[in-house]
Amino acid sequence: MDRERLPGRRRTRQLEVVLEAVRDSGVEHPSADRVFERVRCVLPRISLGTVYRNLQRLAAEGQIGAVDVAGRSTRYDPTPHEHDHFICRICGRLDDVPVTRPAAGLRAASRAGHLVTSHALLLRGVCRDCRRSATSP
Amino acid sequence: MDRERLPGRRRTRQLEVVLEAVRDSGVEHPSADRVFERVRCVLPRISLGTVYRNLQRLAAEGQIGAVDVAGRSTRYDPTPHEHDHFICRICGRLDDVPVTRPAAGLRAASRAGHLVTSHALLLRGVCRDCRRSATSP
DNA sequence: CTCGGTGCAAAGGGTTTGCATACAT
DNA sequence: ATGTATGCAAACCCTTTGCACCGAG
User: Fold this and answer.
1) Domain end position, chosen among B59, B80, B101
2) Is the minimum CB–CB distance between A72 and chain B shorter than 8 Å?
3) Cβ neighbours, 10 Å, residue B10
4) Of A5, A10, B19, B130, which cross-links B90 as Cys (Cβ 3.0–4.6 Å)?
5) How many contacts does A have with B, using Cβ atoms within 8 A?
6) How does pLDDT run across A52-104, given as a tens digit for each residue?
7) CB of A8 within 8 A of CB of A53?
8) Are B1 and B60 in contact (CB under 8 A)?
9) Chain A contact for B134, CB < 8 A?
10) Does A59 lie in the same domain as A106?
11) Total-model pTM
């Protein structure tokens, strides 16, 4: 949101390194804390607050994705294009899955007069590895 | 979850009143705080901790629904059957919408070997009333 | 009588914010 | 030079938890 009014956004080293950390995270979908760890290897004096501020800014600008997970901390995603997620309720592993267009919900919302600007679907369950260790201990 | 093994769950007045408060909340989808307010009219000495404990228990038993909203507090839903939600990012109004079966995501998750046990879809946007006050101030 | 539930208050975790300083523009 | 971004630490919000007492079974 507020992607439009960006008067004097400055490009700092911290911003670059945070973006790079998310982009280089592969399928990990790191939390702010994890990003902080990674970034500290490059900029040992960066603060957690700055990491949060930059993650927020990058997400608002659409350069990265932010995945909200109930009860756990927000996870960040190098892939900003629209897609859904699966999270393992045992180990917290977060996977991308293809987006499902919520046709019925969208119809209902606009029928009610609401404007829908985004949607997020989260699948919950037990990942392959956690199923394995649960069945053969 | 854990609906089965409930050895000595006791039925207390507090539990009853919390359940009733959620059931009587109509379309409000109250937060724990709101439930606390409502319940206090009946049991002035109840504590917020007890409200949280009972909401958690009722949701675990499937008697009420819990809707996790990114960045905001959890909202509770008298309707436990499966459905999705729309939330207004301006005023926080939360509406029920019909469930959308996330076919593509489910397929991808099971192809990856994961077991999906539930899914939650949240539509975000601006509700009718907030659109109105935005366009004609 | 038992032991699960309660009230209270304090702790918890993730995230945000106020402030003086540093630095991109 | 101007004012945004930073580092630091404290504050914040929602939720959970430890403990002694209470009360449902």
Assistant:
1) B80
2) no
3) 5
4) B130
5) 142
6) 999 999 999 999 999 999 989 999 999 999 999 999 999 999 999 999 999 99
7) no
8) yes
9) no
10) no
11) 0.90
